[in-house]
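Below: protein 1.
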Amino acid sequence: MKSLSILLGLIALLNGACNQSQLTGKTTGYEEKLITEANLTPTVDIRNYTLITNNFPHDSISAIEILRLKRNLPLAMQRKDSVLFDSILSIGFTYRGEDEFYKNRKDYIRNRVNARWTIDTVQYQNLVLQFFGEIAILTYRNTLNGTDDNNRPVIEHYSWADIYGKENGKWKIKGMHEIGSRVEYPK
C-alpha cells in the first residue's frame, strides 16, 4: 500500500509540476531518449526503452541497473531462484496483481518459487522509465509464453507499473502493480 501511495503521490507531483510549467511558461528540461538494448538474454526480450530524464548522464547509468533488474525478474521466475529474487526485491516490496496482493516479499518469493506454472519466454514492449530523484517508475507491457498450473500452454499479456528505489546504494524493485491483463490458450 505504501508503494501505491508513493506512486499516486508522484503522479500528483508530476501533474502539479506540469501544470506549474504551463502557467509560468518555464520548461522543466525533461527530454525523452529512446535507448536500444543489446538484448543478450535469449528468454527475456527487451529491445529498447524510453528514458524520460532531465539529467541524462546520471539517469542513464541508473537506467542500466534498473533494466538489469527487469531482465533478472523473469529469469528468477524461470529458474525458481529465491536468491536471485532476494537480490532484486526491496525489503518493503509489495505486489498487486489482478487477483493477488503480496504485502511482503517473503510471501511473494515463496509463491513464485513453488509455482506449478512456467515461463518460457517474455517479450517486453513500450517500456518507459522516468526518475523522480531516488525513485523511478517503469511502465510497460509484456507477453509471457509458458504453461499454466495445469501444464497447458498459455500466452499472457500484461500492462504494469513498477516502482524502483535505492536500498543500501543499489536499485531494487519496491513495488509492482498490474494495470491490466489478458490470457489466451493457443489451439
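Below: protein 2.
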Amino acid sequence: MKNSLLIFGTKNLNDSLGEIKEYLNFTLLFYDKFLFSDISIPTTSAVLIDSEICNDPDVLNLIKKIKNKPFLLLKKYKMSNVPNLDYDDVIILPLSLVEISDKIKNLITSRTYNQNSSIQIKEYVLDKNERKLKRNSLFVTLTEREIQLIELLFNEKNPISKNIILKKIWKYAEDADTHTIETHIYRLRKKIFNKFKDEKFITNSKSGYSI
C-alpha cells in the first residue's frame, strides 16, 4: 500500500508533481478549497506545504486541524521567507526526484517509529525506546515488564483483573498465584509516587486495575 501525500501547493507545483507522480511512488492528494473535505486528512501519511501558499487563510485554517502528521515545507530558494508554521523538514528546490522521494519516505518512517515508541498517557509520555515515563522535565526509568503493564492497563477501556494481567503479560494460567501482580504494581506505584507525587496514576477497584 502506497503512502499518501497531502499537498498544499500553487497550481504550478501541483501541475509539476502531477506530471511526475509515477516517479515519486506516493499517492498524491491535492488540496482544493472547493472540493477538499476533512475526510481525507486521516488517510494522509505526510503533508507537503508550498511556502507560496501559506498566507492563504483557508489553507492555514485547515492545516491547524491536522494533527500527528509529519509536515514538509517546500521552498524555491534557501533564503526565501519561511511562514510562521511548525514543520518537520524542508525541501529546497531545485532537488532531484529521488531526493524528494527519499526525504518524504524518511520523514514518514521516522514519524511512524516515534509514534510507536512513545505513548501519551494523561499528562505523561511513556517512552518505550528510552524505557522512561516522563512528565515535563521529570522522568522515572522503567523495567520492560513495567512498560508492558502500563501499556496493557492504558489500552484497556475497563479495569483488568489480576488473573487477566497474569495471563496476558506473564503467560500464567488464570488460577496462578496473583501476588506477582500485587508486588509489581506496588513497586511501580511507589516509583511513580516518589518521582511525581501522583497516587492515582494506577487505580484499582473490585473489577481490577486501570489507568
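The two ends are 35 Å apart (CA to CA).
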